[in-house]
Amino acid sequence: MKKREKLAIIHKYYPNAISTIDSVNKLIDFIENDLDLEPTKLMLADSICSDDVNSIQYPTRTQEFLGPFKMGGLDGFPFTGLTGMGAFASHVPDDGAVFIYYGPHIGITKTGIIGEIHRLGQSKNSGCCGAAKGALNKLFNDQIVEGNITEMDYQMNTIEQILFRQKNRIINAKIPFFEATEVIYEAIDERINELVENTVYNCKYIILMGAILINSDSDIGSFTMTKRFDIIDLQKNTTRNLLHLYE
């Protein structure tokens, strides 16, 4: 299948999505040309789902960066918290930058089914994100108890509570799974902002890329729908919104 054919499937749901490798290539061009930094001066932290498909489909060119530091648990929520962010911040080159790529993921099969992918070696499709899909099913079946977060299933319970707080918005949406993913993105974005504001960085820049990571079947690959691209200059104390570079 040609690249334009793959993108046509994804663009039915995410019109501005590009392949994840193109997203990484754009980033490297930007840090080299605009920030005058080499990739080895950039420390990557990702807050994406721990699903194995993300390791399989994440571009190998990110290995040019330092890291990655893994902040995310189920569906990308930054469960390592303030301690994780602080640890990551202390690993960055003094004359370099931090790059935080974060957001939930969602599956779209090559036949256009949202919330599923066909994984290598399997005879049937499986959920993606499985945790979000499970939480959404519990939401529709009134099985989520407000405020219930257990030690045994802390991460899943947290995802459930995020959806529960936006129950009416989700269940009344045209595509509830799409809307649930948007809700989770907003919760992750809010938490990332809180963590960044409460962390000290001894480097030049903080690069924040918030996105929906879109997985597809094993022979299609992954795509990125960028929702935020901010450059914080720590020396000048300024923030640039450069989302137009990905639109």
From TrEMBL:
Q: Where is each Limiting CO2-inducible protein B/C beta carbonyic anhydrase domain found?
A: 19-233
What's the domain of life for this entry? Bacteria
Pfam families listed in its UniProt record: LCIB_C_CA (PF18599)
Q: What is this protein called?
A: Limiting CO2-inducible protein B/C beta carbonyic anhydrase domain-containing protein
